[in-house]
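User: For a reading group we're discussing how well predicted structures match intuition. Take Prepilin-type N-terminal cleavage/methylation domain-containing protein. Before you show the prediction, I'll give you the sequence so everyone sees exactly what went in.
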Amino acid sequence: MRRARPSNSRASRGFTLIEVLIAMVLLVAGLALAFATLGAATRTAARGEAMADRSERMRAVEGFMRTRLTGARPIAFDIDQTRAIAVRFIGERERMRFVADIPDYLGRGGPYLHDFRIEDAGDGARVTLALSMVQAGKTVEERDPRPPEMLVDGLREVRFRYRALDEDGRLGDWLDEWKATEQLPLLVEVTMIDRDGAAWPPLVVSLPLAPAFSAFALPVQTQ
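Assistant: Thanks. Here is the predicted 3D structure of Prepilin-type N-terminal cleavage/methylation domain-containing protein, as structure tokens, for the group to look at:
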């Protein structure tokens, strides 16, 4: 009579509790590492997307303002009654007005008064633009005026400054107010800081028609 072969004792016992616990610890550690890697990748992607959105926003706003300013023309849009002179550019720290042509898709084309304003948005500042048609040295009241367009919001600080030649024909200091309203400044600076304190690249724009117009028509501004 043949004796039955004893079965493998370890196989009959299965896994011990310690082995199961070790396997569970390894599984949990692996899952934690996977989730941490996924979370880091998600945060990195979100930061990259936010930076791309911010850069695109900067390029769009600064590109639009640069195009409008470089297109500024020495066209009068009002009369200064106290000095009996035409008003062609009004520049203040928080407001800027000048005439430039606009493309047809923004209106009916032709010269329009561009009125850039820095406004209080409650939790910060914003920049708006209002457009008014100019004819014969005056703004035209439209039947259905277009409300101001918001260019950018979520800002902590915005500032406009202006620069011209001094009496010696050299660039003068930056001015918070442009007093020679009968002529265009040579340079306009727009400074913007986001609500979180991140500063935009300084926008300094040269007005191409300012030097020629000032040279044959008007004296340059002095402080």
